[in-house]
Design brief:
This protein is α+β, with helices and mostly antiparallel strands. It has 3 helices and 6 strands, in the order βββααβββα.
Length: about 130
Amino acid sequence: MSQAPTDIKFRKQSQQLELTYASGEQFALNAEFLRVYSPSAEVRGHGSGQETLQTGKMHVKITELIPVGNYALQLVFSDGHDSGIFSWAYLRELCETKEAKWEAYLQKLHDAKASRDPDQQVVKFFG
């Protein structure tokens, strides 16, 4: 079974990338989710445990979608990030694991006392 979507739509207003597959399944991935799960080395590192937690990406937008051959999309984000190549297989994985990945991301932010909001800094005082 091909991992490639049969239809791709980008909703600029809602910043949703909509993917439809031959099975009829439809998924929507928002710009923030795609940015924090970019497959780039900047985000994922060069091996397990080398990931960099992405913070302050709540308002990031997708500014451009560039087809890469017949196997992927390159997304350009409003914060200048453009080095991730989203293969069809990786996009499908993101679609199928979106809820779990999002919860894991929120937990990592909480544990790091970090925020999705670029204008918010989380500080805890003890005493």
